[in-house]
């Protein structure tokens, strides 16, 4: 349980759903896209990316979100679902945010990671088909005709030629 008045409280994270075979987890500097429902401890909603039909996109651990969320976004897998409880001193503190978030509010977020990547990640190229006989290789300034598929890390197809 999070005590509204204890500045020693940390973020409480409960993993609700974790995909099998997670090969990479989020680290500071990753660019992440996730959906969330934000509520107060009593269940009253205050914000939802689902209602806007748009993911929340940010960099992990770079200070672009409240400190508690920055902590909660560490170590996630694509497709993972977590419930995150953030104490006031790691959220909006005693001041709150206008009429939306009262002062000293404990925030609860249910998050679902859609995908993430690090801008420094190398481009991955996979050869999926190579003719048995290939007598001519392409070179500089050659015009090449090709087919491609572009997909998210979870396999969702974005574009195809």
Automatic annotation (TrEMBL):
Cleavable signal peptide: none
GO cellular component, one term: endoplasmic reticulum
SUPFAM superfamilies: FKBP-like
Keywords: Calcium, Endoplasmic reticulum, Glycoprotein, Isomerase, Metal-binding, Repeat, Rotamase, Signal
Record flagged with keyword Repeat: yes
GO MF, any single term: peptidyl-prolyl cis-trans isomerase activity
Reaction catalysis annotation: [protein]-peptidylproline (omega=180) = [protein]-peptidylproline (omega=0)
The keyword Calcium appears for this protein: yes
Chief location bin: endoplasmic reticulum
PROSITE patterns linked: FKBP_PPIASE (PS50059)
Domain PPIase FKBP-type: 29-117
Compartments it resides in: Endoplasmic reticulum
Coiled coil segments of this chain: none
EC identifiers of the protein: 5.2.1.8
Pfam families, per database record: FKBP_C
InterPro entries xref list: FKBP-like_isomerase, PPIase_dom_sf, PPIase_FKBP_dom
PANTHER family recorded: PEPTIDYL-PROLYL CIS-TRANS ISOMERASE FKBP10 (PTHR46046:SF3), PEPTIDYLPROLYL ISOMERASE (PTHR46046)
Function of the molecule: PPIases accelerate the folding of proteins during protein synthesis.
Protein name per Swiss-Prot or TrEMBL: peptidylprolyl isomerase
Organism from which the protein derives: Nothobranchius rachovii
């Amino acid at each position: 349980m999070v005590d509204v008045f204890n500045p020693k409280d940390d973020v409480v994270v409960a993993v609700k759903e974790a995909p099998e075979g997670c090969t990479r987890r989020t680290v500071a500097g990753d660019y992440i896209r996730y959906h969330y429902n934000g509520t107060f401890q009593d269940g009253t909603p205050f914000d939802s990316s689902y209602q806007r039909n748009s993911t929340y996109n940010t960099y992990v651990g770079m200070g672009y979100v409240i400190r508690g969320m920055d902590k909660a976004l560490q170590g996630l897998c694509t497709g993972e679902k977590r419930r995150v409880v953030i104490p006031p001193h790691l959220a909006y503190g005693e001041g709150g945010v206008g009429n939306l978030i009262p002062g000293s509010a404990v925030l609860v977020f249910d998050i679902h990671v859609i995908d993430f990547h690090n801008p420094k990640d190398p481009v991955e190229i996979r050869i999926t088909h190579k003719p048995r006989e290939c007598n001519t290789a392409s070179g500089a300034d050659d015009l090449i005709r090709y087919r491609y598929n572009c997909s998210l890390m979870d396999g969702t197809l974005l574009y195809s030629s």
